[in-house]
C-alpha cells in the first residue's frame, strides 16, 4: 500500500486524451456528442440519399414540362411553343394580313411581297403546329390567303357578286403562290407525321 502511494507522481491526475470538459461520455454510447452528430448527419446526407433527392427533382421537372413528344409548350426543355388548331388559324390570318397590308402600302397592290410572305407564314405554321393538329396548317393557310385578298385587294366595291368575282380572279392570278405555300405546309406536316410514327415504333420496339 505504501509502495503504490510512493510510485504515483504528485499533482493532479491526468484525464484521458480526446475528451474535453464538456464532452463527457454518455453511458451506452461510444464517442463524444460531436462525433456522433457528424456520423448521423453523414448517414442522412450520404451519396445514396443525395442521389434519391436528385432523382425526385428530375422526375418533378419532367412531369411539369410534359414528357410527351406530341404537342405541348416544352419551354423548360428549350422546344418552341406549339400552336393549337385555333392558334394556327389566328397566326395564319395575322401573318397573311400583315404581309398583304405592307405590300399594298409599299407597292399599291398584292404582288411578290405578299406571295413570299405567304410562303413564310405556311412554313412557320407547319413547323410550329402541334402533332395532334397537323392538318390545321395546310387548311388555315389558304383560308388566310383568301381572307387577305377579300379585305386588302385593291379595287372598287361592287357588292357581293363583284366581291366573289374579284376573289376568284385574285386567286387565279396568284394561284402559283397559293399552291406553293399550301404544298410546302402539306409536305412539312407529312414529314413530321411520318417521323413521329417511326419514332414511336422504334420506342415501342426497343
Automatic annotation (TrEMBL):
It holds the Pfam family DUF6542. Keywords: Membrane, Transmembrane, Transmembrane helix. Residues 65-77 have a biased composition (Gly residues). The chain crosses the membrane at residues 83-100, 106-127, 134-155, 175-195. Residues 82-198 form the DUF6542 domain. Residues 1-47, 61-80 are annotated as: Disordered. The keyword Transmembrane helix applies. It comes from the Bacteria. This is DUF6542 domain-containing protein. It comes from Kitasatospora setae (strain ATCC 33774 / DSM 43861 / JCM 3304 / KCC A-0304 / NBRC 14216 / KM-6054).
Amino acid at each position: 500500500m505504501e509502495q503504490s502511494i510512493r510510485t504515483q507522481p504528485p499533482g493532479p491526475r491526468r484525464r484521458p486524451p480526446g475528451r474535453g470538459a464538456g464532452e463527457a461520455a454518455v453511458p451506452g454510447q461510444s464517442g463524444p456528442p460531436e462525433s456522433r452528430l457528424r456520423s448521423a448527419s453523414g448517414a442522412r446526407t450520404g451519396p445514396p440519399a443525395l442521389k434519391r433527392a436528385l432523382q425526385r427533382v428530375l422526375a418533378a421537372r419532367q412531369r411539369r414540362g410534359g414528357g410527351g413528344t406530341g404537342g405541348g409548350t416544352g419551354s423548360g426543355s428549350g422546344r418552341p411553343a406549339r400552336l393549337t388548331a385555333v392558334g394556327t388559324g389566328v397566326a395564319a390570318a395575322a401573318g397573311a394580313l400583315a404581309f398583304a397590308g405592307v405590300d399594298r402600302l409599299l407597292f399599291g397592290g398584292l404582288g411578290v411581297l405578299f406571295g413570299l410572305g405567304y410562303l413564310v407564314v405556311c412554313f412557320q405554321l407547319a413547323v410550329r403546329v402541334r402533332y395532334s393538329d397537323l392538318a390545321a396548317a395546310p387548311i388555315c393557310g389558304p383560308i388566310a390567303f383568301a381572307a387577305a385578298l377579300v379585305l386588302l385587294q385593291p379595287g372598287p366595291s361592287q357588292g357581293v357578286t363583284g366581291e366573289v368575282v374579284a376573289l376568284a380572279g385574285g386567286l387565279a392570278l396568284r394561284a402559283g403562290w397559293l399552291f406553293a405555300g399550301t404544298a410546302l405546309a402539306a409536305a412539312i406536316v407529312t414529314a413530321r407525321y411520318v417521323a413521329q410514327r417511326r419514332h414511336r415504333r422504334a420506342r415501342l420496339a426497343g
